[in-house]
Prior knowledge:
The structure holds 2 protein chains of 2 kinds.
Chain A (H helix, E strand, L loop, with lengths): L1 H29 L2 H9 L6 H11 L15 H4 L2 H6 L16 H36 L4 H15 L2 H15 L15 H31 L2 H8 L4 H22 L10 H7 L4 H10 L3 H29 L7
Chain B lengths: L1 H21 L15 E6 L14 H10 L4 E3 L8 E3 L9 E3 L5 E2 L7 E7 L49 H11 L9 H5 L5 H12 L18 E3 L4 E7 L5 H4 L10 H7 L21 E7 L3 E6 L34 E6 L3 H9 L5 E3 L5 H4 E3 L5 E3 L1 H5 L3 E6 L2 E7 L11 H13 L2 H8 L4 E3 L23 E4 L2 E4 L2 H10 L15 E7 L3 H15 L4 E7 L1 H10 L4 E7 L6 H4 L8 H4 L10 H10 L6 H17 L2 E13 L3 E2 L15 E2 L1 H11 L5 H26 L4
Helix pairs in contact in B: 11-13, 18-19
Amino acid sequence: MIRYIIRRALYAIPILFGVNLLTFVLFFVVNSPNDMARFHLGFKRVTPQAIVQWKHDHGYDKPMLFNDRAKGVQKITQTVFFQRSMKLFVFDFGRSDEGRDIGYDIRQRMWPSLAIALPTFVIGILVNITTALFLVFFRSTYLDWLGRLALVAMMSVSSLFYIIGGQYLFGKTLRLVPISGYAPGLHAFKFVVLPVVIGVISGIGASGRLYRAFFLEEIEKDYVRTARAKGLSEMSVLFRHVLKNAMIPILTSVVVVVPSLFLGSLIMESFFGIPGLGAYTLDAINAQDFATVRAMVFLGSLFYIVGLALTDITYMLVDPRIRLK
Amino acid sequence: MRRSAQYTIAVLAASIVIGGCSSPWNDPYPANQVHGDIVYSAFTAQPKYLDPARAYSADEYVFLGQIYEPPFQYQYLDRPYRLVPLTATTVSKPSYLDSAGHRIAAGAHAAYSVYVIHIRPGIRYQPDPCFARTADGAYRYYPLQPGALKGRYRLSDFHHTGTRELTAADYVYEIKRLADPRLHSPIYGLMSGYIVGWKQFGKTLAAVYQDHRQGAFVDLRRYPLTGVKALGRYTYSITIRGRYPQFRYWLAMPFFAPMPWEADRFFSQPGMAAHNITLNWYPVGTGPYMLTVNNPNREMVLKRNPNFHKETYPRHGGPGDAAQGLLHDAGKRLPFVNEAVFSLEKESIPYWNKFLQGYYDRSGIGAENFDQVVRIGPHGHPRLTREMRRRHMSLSAQVQTAIYFYGFNMLDPVVGGYSRRARDLRRAISVAINIEHEISIFQNGRAVPAQGPIPPGIFGYREGQAGINPYVYRWAHGLPRRRSLAYARRLLAKAGYPNGRSARTGRQLVLYFDAVATGATDQEMLAWMRKQFAKLNIDLVVRATDYNRFQDKVRRGDVQIFSWGWNADYPDPENFLFLLYGPNSKMASGGENVTNYNDPAFNRLFLQVKDMGNTPARARLIGKMVRIAQRDAPWVWGYYPEQYVLSQPWYFNAKPSLMANNTLKYIRIDPKLRARLRRRWNPPVLWPLAVLGLVLGAIFAPAILEYRRRERRRPL
């Protein structure tokens, strides 16, 4: 397995390089360094000299990808791409275009993101599995039919609707929790409860249906018939046997997102005023802050790669037949 | 032991009950703030800069205005706006010098203007670590020993603070900082044309920085700036080239607030920036408030500065101010509230709902909520709806010192130029674009159609018949009436496009409109715009783009017709008329004249008008300039936006001020009334949860029954 992990780590390098390059190209297709300078300096009374000075101070006065005026290896190193993007590979996120230490900001902001994402994730899995098992238990009855109808309806609704509707119902009309806001520590509870509830409810539709399909696939297999023949109750069959075997596909769909939980949710954090990494990324895009955008995209890609590797490893752990080569 | 455990449980239970009673469940603030003398507000965009040398936007001035104190300020209640001293003893008038440095009469040609400013003794800075000293008088936090920054990422991690008296040298120091090339002050370019020795000073600093590490402290006191000098402990002078009467308004902006050199030195120490401890993040001022929490991702908190000098609420105001209760606190010591909490609220829906629950003290009115709040009466006057009146809300409405307009690129071969043909074409379009409809549809009636570049409240604005733009409006029944479409079509025909077709080629006239448009509402606006041109049978091609591209196109002159706006820096007509001054052309000089309008008579008059005081002669000349601009129609004059603000019944002394940004100190609140109303407005509603439980029970009961039936069933 060690060899497998090393190989995956080596594969990750060209992928991350490609993601970096793509982010760089896409960002600078939309925003030129002049645009960035104007944005940061403000739009009123900005002089051309100030723009030149800003670009110089922030290292955006160099050629983008290839410096034909430099010599030797400096043709590559003395470029905006190399200077701004390659340090990410040693986890040096550097400073944002506003001058803030990005690493520190990420460390500070991942906790509010986790405060929402982690409970949403854990409770969401439990609720989705329970819902799916419930429907499987009553398969081919009116309860199953009604349940499926409800799940399809729930997955057809935009997540924005859940957020606004949840704020309206629980925050504004019932006045049970604050509509938005955040506080650190234990005080966070009353602020995160609504986003978590909304996050869980909005996820039931799609995941509940998916897990139901996984369970149904298992329920017709021989070992289930054998378990029933032994006289086990249907609940025991479902929870002891079907659930265990259906966990493999569930794990593959779940473990991949675990590392990304740090990165938060763009819309949820924005509507609830949660100072997490989702809002951080969105703010950086709006502020044309390339330094922060590339750091967050890099982290996102890295976590995704780690998630995929973890999925493979988990696969092997839960199914002894699988061997990683 | 058992007794103490019981006692603890009893105390905990009591505190929960009491806490529950004193603060509603949905209260987003800590329970101990319920009766606090605190203003609650929100910010939608994070302030980028809190360094007074760099900040230049309303999002930043909301905070900086309360912390830093320039020598002058705007009188809070008087309209038109009037400068009064803040830290200065008087609003000093400049003395004028000839090129040899001799004092000359006020009316003569001046080579230099000298402002001598005396500040009041005894003003002290807020407590700050940069002033902290040890028992032997040395600076406690300078120089920092290696490793001293370990674990320190916030200013509050430096536990000792100090203060000192404000001196004239601090003002001089800040003006020098404005010329610092590392700071990119937005007024560096503008001031280099005025402050004597400024450019040379900037070059000197640039040379000095080449020998220093990035961000290193350079003691600006060591480098003289010819035009700015401290003449004593409490007096300094600023010498500017020629006459620039508007300069006094700049002296009421945070750019010209004092900066203690100790702060610059403290924050420039090695490692401070890497730990996010910068002067841009932690302001150091003499104002009524100091920033104690700076977390722009969540919350920013201003607390009363314990060292704030004596200042009192104005004793005089404008007409109607006394009736509105705005003089109730006349002569009382400022500030009134102890704290202001600003929460980040990016989306308008949560903001509005929290305002209705009483968790914000003031709010603007979004288009989606307008009908819920305001009814426009038969004479166009806004009135609160019954629901808002029942809540005792108050509404303030004020026309802003700003203008939104549609510009014609005067260098464009079709719509630009100064020929009769081009003027007629622009005037025809000006008549066809129905600004009144635009205001009604897109602004909920919250704007005044513009007749020229100068908005109400600015010297030179003319009301009534004398002020209308005769090329677009006529005066009838005591009101300006937009000229008819038939009139516009006649103008279009005179311009060589009868019925929108070229008289020469017979082809339909096609024009191009550039705008920033990224959202759904923008598309509605653009569709409306097409319809306005279609009334003249002109085919309008819309080139919607993002902000960067749009700015770039305007800079390059690659536009024909476009939308633009301007918000005044200071209440002087020069700040609007310069938008049409030829040498300020965007294409030629990168200035703010975005239409590249260039009329020699207008330019000549501008040079005369800009240096004059607000006299009848100046008003006459401004009238002439406005008439020239109306004749040439480089802009479709658009509208002056109106600002509507709702205040809660516990919020007092609120008078909209579009110039002053240090208004928090005048605000008074009634925290007891607020706490009472919040409780009344926010009782938790629990019965729907019981109903939800019943519904779920009704769904699951048959499931449970079915489950039991199945489990009891005998195997076959």
